[in-house]
Amino acid sequence: MPRLITLSRAARLVGVKRGALQKKIREGELRTFEGEILLTDLLQSYPQTEVEDTSMLERVEQIMEQAVNKIVRPADDAPDSGALATRVMALSQELATARHEARRLAGVINGLQAQFDLLDSGDSLPDDAFSTLRQWLATALATEAADELETDEIFARETFLRVMEAQIRILPSGHEFLIEGSDSILEAGLRNGLALAYGCSNGNCGKCKAKLVSGQIKKIHQHDYVLTEAEKALGYFLTCSSTAVTDVVMEAEEAAGSRDIPLQNIDVRIRKIERPDDRVVVLETRTPRTNRLRFLAGQYLTLKIDDLPTCDCSITSCPCDGMNLQFQIPVTAGDPLSEHLATNARAHDIISISGPRGDFILNEESSRSLVFIAGNAGIGPIKSLIEHAMALDIAEDIHLAWITTDGNSHYLGNLCRSWDDALDNFHYTALQANGEQSAQSLLPQITGKLGSLDQYDCYVCMPSPLLEPVKNFLTASGAPENQVRVESLR
Ligand code: FES
Known about the structure:
With 490 residues, this protein is α/β, with parallel strands linked by helices. It contains 15 helices and 20 strands. It binds FE2/S2 (inorganic) cluster.
């Protein structure tokens, strides 16, 4: 029977981005059946798939390491996680072999039936009927369905993945993601770039409540929030306190835009302050464990320290971690808060944050490739957007150009280069300019290698004098206005 698999599993199986599969679907290279694709079609598109590739096994071993002692069995009698993963893989291969053999024998039985029909159709049995039949049977049994062997190897891997990872599908959005190890459904969803509703993330507030439509879940820790008996009977559960045992379909609330994210006021504690150069402060903060910040990549907060004037700062970390928040704050002469952070602030100091605000967020409905252009510390919110885009895994290509002017440094250059080295679809260009005119003259270097700009969504975060010129340049170069989002450096 033809085997259908979801895009997430298909991408994992052949080791490509979901965006690459979506491109093949758009171009008609891969067929979809209610959002799923045929395993055989997948193999035809990726004939080079290495069935012996052990990276998946290693990855699963890591997952097992984290998971097995927590949810599968008590720690004292749990088998070695690597041994368990190897056994599951061996069982998957046995299952694939048995499935292959069953299919082959079904073919032989059908052939035998046809032989009997043939013999039955004559007036009398030929003398050599039985020896001919015996010979036919011997040949049929010796014939391997070799053309399907490779599919069976992939079947074994796919079965293995099904055991190790469950898939979550969210209604009504249709978003889907894989959940690994002992992660909660909420953690896995956030890590995959989804804006699921939540508050405390540890079972106190009830904001992550979702309704199970199908599949099986398991509570992984006790929670103080009390679900009513009626809610339980309807299938409601807390995503922050549950993991998936089987593939799950659930109804859950997701933010579709900034208007769906509530304003929050939280006191955070400084964890670390770094000065990568004398123009910027990188501030790492932590919220209370029971009160994390829900935000969208690219949004900003208002920061307040004691009686100093407040300032608006972009969040430069990923929304997948609402507890550990990062800010990259330009140090500006005459701005008391940035000067205080650069000179007097210490670890453990308290900062009051309020927000989030702002619409400089990813257009998640688009699967176009992405162009990010950052100027100086504008790399901060751009970094948050890029990390979010990587988590969503829908863009085919991501281009980042970082222009620094007037002595500002590429203080995150190592991170950007490491993305460029590690990801086939990520391309980084560092540019240095002297003054605004010089920065503008560098823009053709960015767009020159992109081809037609209407194929891209562009995101620009720059010091304000450069913002309009860059936007005008992009639209004059062919980028549709509704595909260019800009933000002035805060
Ligand atoms: S996020 Fe608060 S109970 Fe789940």
